[in-house]
Amino acid sequence: MTALRVPPGPSSLEAMRGMRSMGGGTDLREIPIFLAGVAARYGGIAHWTFFGRHFYFLDDPVLIEEAFVLQAGHYRKGRGIERLKRLLGNGLLSSEEPLHLRQRRMMQPAFHKERIAGYGSQMVAATSEQIAAWRSGSVLELDAEMTRLTLTIAAATLFTSDVAGQTETIRAALTAALRAFPASLSTFSELFDALPVLPVTRRFNRARAELDRVIYGLIAARRAGPAAGQDDLLGMLLAARDGDAAMDDVQIRDEAMTLFLAGHETTANALSWTWYLLARNPPAARRLGEELDAVLGGRLPEAADLPRLRYTRDVFAEALRLYPPAWVLGRRALRDTSIGEYTVPRGSVVLASQLVTQRNPRYWEEPERFEPGRWSGPAPPRFAYFPFGGGVRRCIGESFAWMEGVLLIAVIAQRLRFEALDPAEIGIEPLVTLRPRSAIRLRASTRETASGAVSGTPH
Ligand code: HEM
Fold first, then answer.
1. Pocket test for ligand 1, best of 123, 233, 395 (most atoms within 8 A of CB)
2. Does the CB atom of residue 92 touch ligand 1 within 6 A?
3. pLDDT averaged over 10-residue windows placed end to end, the chain, 459 residues
4. CB-side exposure of 300: number of CA atoms within 13 Å?
5. 1-89+327-386: which CATH architecture?
6. Which homologous superfamily does the CATH classification assign to the domain defined by 92-281+298-321+388-459?
């Protein structure tokens, strides 16, 4: 490569302070604060070095598109995702080319809007069932409730009823496996892997073995049973073909585990923040209720209602803007390349953060304000909003997530309103996804509508 031409940025010492949590320190919350500070100080592209490695942070939609979409072939996934391989193997999220493209081609048809519309009724049914136990006036932990609900839906849409009775086992194992992740993102985690006696490694290995037992069991049962019938995602994985080639059991396990994890944790996060934001913004909650009454008139929603639930969609879009579940994207340069006018040597790390750019005042008016109404105005620049990423690695479950988000908000907000108990803001916990730092505790009460109670209203 010719002479290195890099943009300005923080000194190595500042970067070390800002990112020490990535190196095994204590507090991951410092990372978004550090990145937002870098963007505010240096603008659309900044550079620093950390233990000899070049880092670039992008906060400019044009440059984000250049690196993550147009030049995607010059990069591979970063270290965070690489670490997830311990759990997800070579599933779609963590695999690299050429395997990724082959798998993406095989799986893409199953995620088209028309194909997934059938899952809408399962989403609505699971939500109605869960909220039937909620009592008006009670205080709920919405984040725990949403995780339970999206996990039930992920299990139902992936494995249909095969998994009934095992959802609890899966939930416990998945939670235990994910708990091991902050430690496993640290600098010394390769060492942890080699030391199975460490409690964190032992817990992770046990949880992974438990998940494998359940998923391989489901695959074996499905292969042994009648071939036809199962219109769920596992059925799709078993039926998918690349020419004559099908996936083997290990690949199916990796894809199923990936869909299971990527498909529920993110949506649960987005919905938890949605309830939090609505409870703190009563006018938006009222307007949402009015739309639901006008479109649904008290009946349960279905996939066909989605085009008319515009404001409901805008509420979800706005929650994804302020609290993007996938809050940072990282890539590593496979070769010497460039971004804008700058050189990017092989091995460099390129980062972009939804959490930072989606709140950048250059692209958003009153960026900190929850304002679903902004989505009926002019569209923001491409890649000023990218909760689902972009390019060949764009989220395959995006349509699924929009449907799930809008339907769940519709079912719940049609019947209930939520009241914040504590005026203090809840902070963020940027782990693998952007979780709330403490429980989102809200008081639920039955909504009064012009037409009286809605069918199935909790009492
Ligand atoms: C609000 C919910 C969701 C958000 C915010 C979200 C976000 C994302 C993002 C940002 C990526 C790209 C990661 C990268 O470029 O490194 C991604 C990839 C992916 N997501 Fe989602 N996701 C959501 C829901 C889902 C659902 C419901 C599913 C499955 C049913 C899913 C499955 C996947 C998979 C398999 C990939 C990897 C795609 C590939 O590399 O080809 N996601 N998601």
1. 395
2. yes
3. 84 79 56 89 93 91 97 87 82 92 92 87 94 92 92 85 70 75 50 56 83 87 70 87 91 92 90 96 96 96 96 98 92 95 94 94 94 94 96 94 98 95 82 82 84 52
4. 16
5. 2-Layer Sandwich (3.30)
6. Cytochrome P450 (1.10.630.10)
